[in-house]
Amino acid sequence: MHEFSIASQIIDIVLSEAKRRYAKKILEIRIRIGRFSFVNPDQLRFSLEAIASMEPLLDGVAFTISEEEAEAECMECSYRWIIECEDNPLYHYSPPIVRCPRCNGVSKFIKGRDCIIEGVRIEV
Questions:
Q1: Within this chain, do residues 59 and 117 fall inside the same structural domain, yes or no?
Q2: Over the range 2-27, which residues count as b (16 or more CB within 10 Å of their CB) and which as e?
Q3: Residues 78 and 49 in one domain
């Protein structure tokens, strides 16, 4: 379960920044995860809440987790489309080679592979 490791890194980043800004309390953490990051939102939330319960600065913090569709763009014709993704264990190591549905050209991911801290609300 890589969600616990990701949650731990998120909390470390947020705590570091909050302490740098002399925060009294962290009120909300907003996170966006891409469908092709294969991070399970429920497992991530569970991990975040478990870690937060051990840190006084995070007492009562709200976690807002949103998902982002996976999007690709053809490198030949510039067509963009949303990729339907299945949770294939092989994709956790290497994403699939994506072909354009219009021209069969080689394509690249442009969205949906990231896990991003979108924002943090603190009390100072």
A1: yes
A2: ebeebbeebbeebbeebeeeebeebe
A3: no
pLDDT tens figures, 73-93:
999 999 999 988 766 666 666
Same domain flag for 103 and 116 = no
Interstrand relation of 80-83 and 70-74 (parallel, antiparallel or unpaired): antiparallel
CB neighbour burial string for 61-82, b if at least 16 within 10 angstroms, e if fewer: bebebeebebbbbbeeeeeebe
Number of domains in the chain: 2
Per DSSP, the three-state class of 35 is helix
Same domain, 19 and 38: yes
Model confidence pLDDT, tens digit, residues 50-66? 999 999 999 999 999 99
AA letter at 84: E
Across the beta sheet with 107-111, what order do the strands follow?
A: 80-83, 70-74, 107-111
